[in-house]
Design brief:
The complex is a heterodimer.
Chain A (H helix, E strand, L loop, with lengths): L7 H6 L1 H16 L2 E5 L3 H13 L3 E5 L6 H4 L9 H4 L4 H12 L4 E4 L9 H5 L3 E5 L3 H13 L5 E8 L2 E7 L2 E8 L2 E8 L3 H5 L12 H16 L11 H15 L8 H9 L5 H20 L8 E5 L4 E5 L8
Parallel strand pairs in A: 1-2, 1-4, 2-3, 4-5
Antiparallel strand pairs in A: 5-6, 6-9, 7-8, 9-10
Helix pairs in contact in A: 3-6, 3-13, 10-11, 10-12
Chain B lengths: L23 H12 L19 H5 L4 E2 L5 H14 L3 E7 L2 E7 L20 H5 L5 H17 L19 H8 L7 H21 L16 H4 L2 H6 L14 H4 L11 H18 L14 H17 L7 H8 L7 H19 L8 E9 L2 E6 L16 E5 L6 H10 L7 E5 L2 E5 L6 H11 L15 E6 L4 E9 L12 E4 L90
Parallel strand pairs in B: 1-2, 6-10
Antiparallel strand pairs in B: 2-3, 3-4, 4-5, 6-11, 7-8, 7-9, 9-10
Helix pairs in contact in B: 5-12, 7-11, 11-12, 12-13
Classes of the chains: A alpha/beta, B alpha+beta.
Amino acid sequence: MNGEELTEQETALYDRQIRVWGADAQRRLSKSHILVYGMKGTVAEFCKNIVLAGVGSVTLMDDHAVTDSALSANFLILPDENLSHGKTLAEACCDSLKEFNPMVHVSVEKGDISTFGVEFFEKFDAVVISCCSLAKKKLINQKCRKLPKRISFYTVDCRGSCGEIFVDLKNYKYSKKKLEETIECQLEYPSFEDAIAAPWKALPKRVSKLYFGMRVIEQFEDIEGRNAGQTSIADLPGVLKLRKELCETNSVNESQVPDALLERLLIGTSEFPPVCAVIGGILGQEVIKAISGKGDPLKNFFFFDAMDGKGLIEDISKPRHS
Amino acid sequence: MDTIEVSNLNRQFLFRRSHVGLSKAKVARDAVLRFRPNISITPYHSNVKESHFNVDFFKEFDVVLNGLDNLDARRHVNRLCLAADVPLVESGTTGFLGQVTVHLKGKTECYECQPKPAPKTYPVCTITSTPSKFIHCIVWAKDLLFAKLFGDKDQENDLNVRSNDTGNSSEHSADVFEYRKDEDIEQYGRRIYDHVFGHNIEVALSNEETWKNRNKPRPIYSKDVLPVKMTEENGNTEKDCATGDVSVMAFLSLKNPQDIWSLAENTRVFLEALRLFFSKRRKDIGNLTFDKDDQLAVEFVTAAANIRASSFAIPLHSLFEAKGIAGNIVHAVATTNAIVAGLIVIEAIKVLKKDNNNYRMTYCLEHPSRKLLLMPVEPYEPNKSCYVCSETPLSLEVNTHHSKLRDFVEKIVKGKLGMNFAVIMQGTSILYEVGEDLEEDMVAIYAANLEKALSELPSPVTSGTVLTVEDLQQEFSCSINIKHREGFDEEKEPNGMVLSGWVEAPVYKDNNKPIGNGESTSNTFPSEEKDVEIQEMSEGTETVTGKKRKLSKVDENRNQKKPEKLDVDDEDDELIISDDWESLTKKKRV
């Protein structure tokens, strides 16, 4: 797009959403650059949403080869052998995504993201990572936070019927209209590392059990040197043992992390398409909010469990030391 | 039966630009097969209300998922699913809000157990004489002026109605709007302009009473805004691709639909649009109804509404905003739709697994309520006084000597009960029905019956009579107990009929009603003097909490609150729901 005005084509295409967030927000979206790492079903849904919304560019990273299991929850991967043969997940998704909105620049970046320097991340306004080990999450988060530029950082993971989103907007300032007035808001977000370091005992009693469940599995994978999602029900004894240790360390009752939940998370290594849609939708909306500067962003975790149907926000951070 | 439009492409991701104009059902099917080749998908490019989609058709399915965009169709499908005893998953979205509900006959509420709000309507005098909000000006421009100039000439039109209609100058006004043979279009345009924005305002001003507590409008004459010479000078090049693409804006270099035009610019658009209709689209005149996708119509209505707004010191709006209001455009984004779609599938899978104890209604919120962005609620038991699924008889108070069968059909059967192809019987006598294979003499009898007073029908309808109204396609039947009543309050009960046992839906502020159940705002101009008050929705009512279900006797036009609540805040998009959602769990559950 040229200059400051939306083109006629953009106005026609984005009419229904401009009526939601306004032309200014749309303009800001069209100038934004998003990095996406880990192309599973939920992220595919998310990418679809932001491409439709009309962001400036989306850069995809996932060097895994296309396999049959990818087809089960990633609707961007087409079963047609000819189309996906020899391609990486990112490449296959890239081809599909371009079709959704020719005005968005979609590309693929290859390589080991852990080795990329801070300068690599500077060109992005938002970074979304998935299918990532604990160590990698922390690393990328730190690199983003190092930059003077404010980069919106997100992690997203779906396991079976459950999903988790983490949001780090650093120091986020935005304004909103309340009645006739415009009020300035400011939110300070902890890094992923700081957030999960919050002692469990200090958290409110009613915090979603899914938070703890995810942390236990995450730690388990870390300790065992597994890739993200590389668990099975056979790991249950090991996981339960770890839970016991973590609960003791944190002085909380083991009932905070129910057996049944851990089982579900262990078994649910593949994604469930409707949950991908729900999580991908929520995440899409969060990224759009942060880029457009419009709307209250969620702080700082979002959980969804199809079993009870609740989609809730938890504010989890390390308490400040006095 | 819809075809694909450009504005769909921001969220309906199965469609591409190259598909614009094609059938949604067919293209969607093809798109899905690309990533799931082994599913059997049958597209029907048709209206779900067609007779082909009868109860037997619905019986073939294990579950029905609705993605409809109007209340009428939803009610229709609801009744068919009840008749076929097929579970229905309903849903709707608007902007950031959405909801999914599950309906099982006998186990949960049906879609109509909680009546859905009727579209907002405005008092006639507000539209014709005392507008106070921009939307009143839009309704005036669309349903009165546009209709008068370009629509069916035989339609009744209140354009010259004044609050105290002492003198009847209808003959004079008929001349005014009629385009005279060989008249200069420019002159015609100014004549119309001056009549509606100048003359009519002056006439209205002459009635002091109206303006006692209101700001007076000012009359506007075109020569004061746009001296005649200026328009003559204004370019001869027109930008139009095809007849349908005729547009004023490009011609006048008013490129940005988000700009708010000045009074002079609005006047130019008004006059130019009128000129273009007459010079390029002459054959359309007399047949047109307002269509939001008709660019020239939108330009005309925007300009007309703005000029009227200017007269009444109401803030002007851009074409973009005006189009949204006039066209009842529902704002929509891909993300909310994706979330709701996921939730629909989750419920559908439960239905297929017959997971009876876990069905839920889920609400998707813009602002969290008690940390929840997605709020699950257990379904309610069926409403015992729901006339749709509980077959509760209704009562109708009516003057059986004065009211005709036609009134009953229009106002009650179609208007309230939503039955379009009804059979009306008293006992075994059929008083009225519609159908394709009726014998001529029967058709004649029914036509005659329509014009008879109820008490004078071949099977007289009097106090104590029970009428049965059935819609065979919906397989839905309803009993109505008739009670004769002599008098009705002209203001509160202008229909001269009062239906009870029917829980009247409260009229909401646009933004606070169940999400996306139908056209968000309808500016359908009321044909009667219906004074519907707009009620502020208070916490704890509707949508999430559900209402008390007392059998209440409700007047046709219940005035719910004092007029000061008419000032609707159009900006606030918040859905006000009960903060006390846990109390919901104490309601009667399945």
